[in-house]
Design brief:
Blueprint: H1 9-17, H2 23-41, E1 44-47, H3 49-57, E2 71-75, H4 102-109, E3 113-118, E4 130-131, E5 135-136, H5 152-159, E6 166-170, H6 176-182, E7 185-188, E8 207-212, H7 215-225, H8 243-246, E9 255-259, H9 271-286, E10 290-294, H10 303-326, H11 337-348, H12 351-372, E11 377-381, H13 400-410, H14 415-420, E12 424-431, E13 437-443, H15 449-462, H16 471-475
Parallel strand pairs: 2-3, 2-6, 9-10, 9-11
Antiparallel strand pairs: 1-3, 4-5, 6-8, 7-8, 7-12, 11-13, 12-13
Length: 496
């Protein structure tokens, strides 16, 4: 069973169908890996040993569901019936819902075995994962650095080989950022593609998706997650064919815009991240596409305050819901200083100011989408900085808004895509000299996941990454040098 959990989810499902591996054997191996690695990585908030084994016992080789018997972890911001839902906040304590999120229900129906819940920053605010309640989650490539956030626990679990796939959410980059930090594929679907119900209504910013090792796994999982659910206020039109099929058809002659200008002020682009974007552009040209440097109209607009006015009320709703579960009004000590500051900011926010901020963001979105319509895909760095050391960005301490601003300097290229509603994907094309993954972001057209996945699969074939494993995954312990390089710098194609 050594290394089996680092194989793609689709391959594992095929092994189970072929009778070469049972769902129970695979789930038991998954739980053993979690027990072995969790003390080092702290990726999980809850491990469902008995429930997972009981589910796996019911799955045989004749089960025709696409992912029958494959273990999956769920970010601890989505309800799973019978498991704690904490949002990594003391305010939510150990609340156990009796229902599944629609995305979780669809994953169960596809045959996945849910093995537990994964960590996030409190209420999913930041692009790092080190909540007061759960402590820091470590990056499997370097235990002293962040795995990203807010789906950092999910990313660490997949990258380390605890699970082959995990559910995340993305409201400002929260799937793509940890994918870039941990060397994974992370797709933010188009707005309305995946239902946020039954608890959440239409979201201007947030959507569900998965973290995986391969584009094929991501495409097949999107086929499971996508689609209208009764009561959805808005939804994306269904694709003309399955995403898994579209991803297998290489695109030709695409027009691609390389964008390096910052959507957020005050950020500086690390030369290594810039070099990776240029190298990706060169590879795309070698594959027959046309690439030109462009300047999308997202710079110098002062977007962070308006984004905060739109995003903050979502955080405040979580605080209110936690207080309702506790049966009392929330107080400052219930949550971290950043959460409380955002809660107070939202309470003081005039409704007209909130609506005006969202209207300004929608105007910016129209301008960006109109600009992007001149290209098939936009290419940007995934991050502006290398994965930051643990303790650099968090929700604690006397300067919560300073931490919040630092998060924007770390990840300036991701939140603008949530504002536009466009699909985007982070791909782990390279490794830096520091041994850490080095990714890029591709932004597709409206409801254009099919082309985005096809282009990503083409890049994956040219620069395969799935076999690259962090030291923690390879040896089961951090070893003497947890930052050992596993690939190459962006000046050349990485070793596979």
């Amino acid at each position: 069973m050594d290394g089996v959990l680092t194989r793609p989810a689709l391959e594992l499902a095929e092994l189970i169908r072929a009778g070469e591996l049972s769902a129970l054997e695979l789930t038991a191996a998954c739980l053993e890996a979690i027990d072995a690695l969790e003390p080092q990585l702290n990726a999980f908030t809850h491990v469902a040993h008995e429930q997972a084994l009981a589910t796996a016992r019911q799955i045989g080789r004749d089960d025709g569901r696409p992912f029958a018997g494959v273990p999956i972890a769920i970010k601890d911001s989505r309800p799973v019936a019978g498991m704690p839902l904490t949002h990594c906040s003391d305010l939510w304590a150990d609340f156990r819902p009796t229902h599944d999120a629609f995305s979780v229900r669809r994953l169960r129906a596809a045959g996945f075995v849910i093995v537990g819940k994964t960590a996030l920053p409190e209420n999913g605010i930041l692009p790092t994962t080190e909540s007061r309640r759960n402590g820091p989650t470590c990056n499997p490539w370097d235990l002293g650095r962040t795995p990203g956030g807010s789906s950092g626990g999910s990313a660490a679990a997949v990258a380390s080989g605890m699970v082959p796939i995990a559910l995340g959410t993305d409201g400002g980059g929260s799937i793509r950022i940890p994918a870039a930090c941990c060397g994974l594929v992370g797709l933010k679907p188009a707005r309305g593609r995946v239902s946020s119900g039954p608890d959440a209504g239409h979201s201007f910013l947030v959507c569900d998706g998965v973290l995986t090792r391969t584009v094929a796994d991501t495409a097949a999982a999107l086929d499971v997650l996508a689609g209208y659910e009764p009561g959805d206020a808005t939804w994306a039109p269904p694709p003309s064919e399955a995403f898994a099929h579209a991803a297998r058809r290489p695109p030709a002659g695409l027009r691609i815009g390389l964008a390096l200008n910052m959507p957020l002020e005050g950020a500086e682009l690390d030369p290594v991240c810039e070099a990776a974007a240029h190298q990706a552009a060169a590879m795309l040209e070698a594959l027959g596409h046309r690439v030109e440097e462009v300047t999308p109209p997202w710079s110098g607009l002062g977007l962070l305050p308006d984004f905060t006015r739109a995003f903050g009320p979502l955080i405040a709703q979580g605080v209110v819901a936690g207080g309702e579960l506790a049966g009392r009004e929330p107080v400052a000590r219930d949550v971290e200083p950043l959460t409380w500051s955002m809660y107070e900011h939202a309470r003081e926010l005039d409704a007209l100011v909130h609506l005006a901020a969202q209207a300004r963001l929608e105007r910016v979105a129209r301008r960006v989408v109109e600009f992007a319509a001149g290209f098939d895909v936009l290419l940007t760095p995934a991050l502006a900085q290398r994965p930051v050391p643990t303790g650099t960005i968090h929700g604690r301490g006397p300067d919560p808004w300073g931490n919040y601003r630092r998060s924007g300097a770390f990840t300036p290229y991701t939140a603008i895509v949530n504002v536009t509603g466009l699909p985007a994907i982070a791909l782990p094309l390279y490794h830096g000299d520091d041994g850490l993954p080095l990714g890029v972001q591709l932004i597709g057209p409206p409801v254009g996941e099919a082309m985005l996945l096809a282009l990503s699969a083409q890049l994956e074939e040219a620069l395969p990454w799935a076999a690259r494993m962090p030291p923690t995954a390879r040896r089961g312990d951090p070893g003497p040098d947890s930052t050992a390089a596993a690939g190459a710098d962006p000046s050349r194609a990485p070793a596979s």
